[in-house]
Amino acid sequence: MEHIPAALGGNDRAQMGARAAETARRLAGQNVVAVAMTWVDVSGITRTKTVPINRLEHAATWGVGMSPVFDVFLLDDSIVSGRHIGGPSGDLRLHPVLDRLVPMAALPGWAHAPAVRFAQDGAVHPLDARALLYREVVRLGEAGWEARAAFEIEWAVSAGDGDTFVPAARGPAYSLARVTELPDYLRELLHDLARTGVTVLQLHPEYTPGQFEISVAAEDPIGAADTAVLVRETVRAVTRRHGMRASFSPKVEADSVGNGGHVHLSLWRRDVVHGPANAMAGGAGPCGMSAYGEAFAAGILRRLPALLAVGAPAVASYLRLVRSHWAGAFACWGPENREAALRFVTGAQGEQDQAANLEIKCFDPAANPYLALAALLAAGRDGLAAGLTLPEPVGVDPADLTADERAARGIAPLPSSLGEAVAAFERDAVLRDALGEAVIDTVAAVRRGEADLLADATPEEVTAATRWRH
Questions:
Q1: Parent domain of 346
Q2: DSSP class of 348
Q3: Three-class DSSP category at 262
């Protein structure tokens, strides 16, 4: 994991510039002509500034100018204002992260680099989500822990380039028949991801016609968020190359199952002698968790209603987040329970020490992956500090229980609207302390802006408005 300074100094700039000059020479030899520097905004859209390869050194040293107002863009590119961000004034500097710069196989001649935003005086921007995540990783490390994470990427493929969704594959859910409808597309996708350095664990058709999912290897949280962006943009590019269109919206059609953006997360004890040890396995706690793994999981479970404001951040998210659709609509946990918002993945017998992890099922692809992971780590870290314990696991679909049975077991439904999630987010003192006032206020302003934008829309109108934005 690379170091992100709280403020850029002269030595930082000199080192980044020298590395960028060397990188630019190497990339030019590979026929790369431009670098797309990306950040993900509060509404979950990947934005970019691009520089020709011969300007990479300058961009790394001094940054590329951009307005702070991008933090309050809504999904339709309209703009709101918060107490900390808004209006035409001010400027930030966008610096490419050279450790994660890679040529994009799906876009020949182009390279991709995630970016970090700094103020003109060199101070890191308080709303830079990648820097926020770095801060949470450091805080966890100071307590002797590290995390590993990965995002599941679900998307739906539409035939042609029109705005109406027309499934490009109609075979049965999870069937090989659906693969045989798009074999060249899927083959090229795997090929381009491998050439870009992404370790794909599996690719399979999902439930909805035209829907697929890619699972990637776990890595450090910042790397996991970088990879999530890179995978999605590779999918988007390959899909376009085949004359089709990819949607990562939480709900592509009002009457279909939506796209999930499940987060896999595990906690590891640092050990310089024996190597990291997975706190989610090998212990005396529930499902073999250690006491630390249980506390980390319990911290996340406790804060799920508030966490939805960053993990299920769109109006369309709440069309997906419904009971009995494997979306995790209830705040509960259970081993291998795909209806629990927090599924505990045990791993195969004999592999638990490496494979055991948490899956947060209620999150979706509209989330900014950096912000989502930062909030999850803050919640888990608070659980560790408080020594929290988990309630009894749930082994059934909570919707099959009566309301009285759920109440007796402490199983509550998650917020059913974006407004409810935002209210919980603003009340949460732990997230406020971890993320900062500027983040809390800006996230709330953007969420309310999008809720107002679609306040009178039908489910069909919501899906039409969001289908091609994420």
A1: 136-466
A2: S
A3: coil
